[in-house]
Amino acid sequence: MNEEGSGKKKLLFLCVWNSCRSQMAEAFARKLGGDHVEVYSAGIDPSTQIEPRVSEMMREVGCNLVGHRTKAITAIPDMEYDIVVTMVGDQPCPPIRARRHIIWNIPNPKRLTEDGFRAVRNLIHMMVEELFAIFGIIPPDV
Predict the structure, then answer these.
(1) Residue whose C-alpha is closest to residue 75's, from 43, 30, 29, 99
(2) Between helices 114-134 and 52-59, what is the axis angle to 10°?
(3) 1-18 pLDDT, tens digit each
(4) CA–CA gap between residue 76 and residue 86 (Å, rounded)
(5) For the whole model, what pTM was predicted?
(6) CA–CA dist 126, 118 (Å, integer)
(7) Count of CB atoms within 10 A of residue 135's CB?
(8) CA gap 65, 129 in Å, rounded
């Protein structure tokens, strides 16, 4: 349970531009966790828009990114997160209060083929599922 006692795990996914990887992780976490999680994503140097193929690729697996937009780290709530996942390990990141910091080193799918992009999407999905299982985030009714 988190510090505020709400029972919701607070998750943050960070990447460089917040246009591909962290957006996909946020969408998968929202879909898998439902009301049991509070999920955010942000970029260290955010892009002006989500990579167009992200919406298309996520739609293929039943995730709707309508309403998603890129965000800077300064635009996310200033609170202690239960878990912060950085999608790339070689990017300096401002300090963010969290109980756990995890680095995934996910390749950037932006310039990959369609199949390569799907492979990265599927890897992110699998890693979010593993994260939920390891930290007991998956709701009991799933």
Answers:
(1) 43
(2) 70
(3) 444 456 899 999 999 999
(4) 15
(5) 0.91
(6) 12
(7) 15
(8) 19
Written as six digits, the tokens of 56 are: 């298309």
The domain locations on the chain are: 9-134
- What is the distance between the alpha carbons of residues 45 and 113, in angstroms, rounded to a whole number? 24
d(CA 14, CA 81): 12
Low-confidence ranges of the chain (pLDDT < 50): 1-4, 142
CATH architecture of 9-134: 3-Layer(aba) Sandwich (3.40)
